[in-house]
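Risk register update: the risk of archive-format incompatibility is retired. Evidence:
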Amino acid sequence: MGLSRSSIFAFSFIQSPGGIDYTKHIYNFHNRPTMIIYLLTLLTGLGIGVIASVVGVGGGFLAVPYLMMVCSLEPMEAVGTSLVMVTGTGYSSTIAYLRGDRPKIPLGLSLGIMAVPGVYLGYALLARTAEETFKLAFGVTLMAVAIYLGTGTKGRLATGEWGGRERGRWYYFSPMGFFGGLISAFFGVGGGVIYTPYLILAPRLRPRVAAGTSLLAIAVSGTFAIFIYGYTDHISPYLAVSLLAGTVAGSQIGVRLSTKLKGKHIVLALSAIVFITGLRMLLMVL
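Archived output:
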């Protein structure tokens, strides 16, 4: 748990002319990162919060690579720490969305509840997965999601025709929560990369309504996921608090920003970010 010695080596260039290594002022060898990492994590959380709340995802697809590549956390601890941030973003953004485009509360709650068994299964699978396998699977998944977001809804992106006449009753779409929970607990994401496109394409919710509904589901399922990872000591509390503080502030900015942006621009920007992140994870393995 905590930061590995490889993190120290990565910053070994920070030396005085006399050869004195000052990296000890940046990191220590214990579970507690120092002030520079707190600040960097806080700013990272701020940016993630803006992006996540605009598109209706938890932001874990950005937080987990950051925690693994920059903070050198092991996969399970990176996932557990990310889920604290993801859940906080879900609650904060849902409250903000309630003031405007109201999410579909029954659908959001049912998705979150149906995600609970998926969360448990995802945790069990991750506990039995090697680190290199996790990085490979995560990278491929991110790139697939990016391609889907950028090209799978090409017609709607080109015309701006998102959503439409809503169809079906809320309980028709609830079973998708299981798969969102599975993805959430295994990869440390909120499940919004599954929920938001699904809610736009299946029940045909408008983008902002779909985003708010997705974030409500994330908040519900994330609470259970935090309990599991916290109980097994797979959460870095210091990094979790820093990330959470940043994302809570960023999510409020993002919700306001979403009213000024076109849906197609939001989705295209998101797909580019996700693709680059996935490619970076693959390069760590190959």
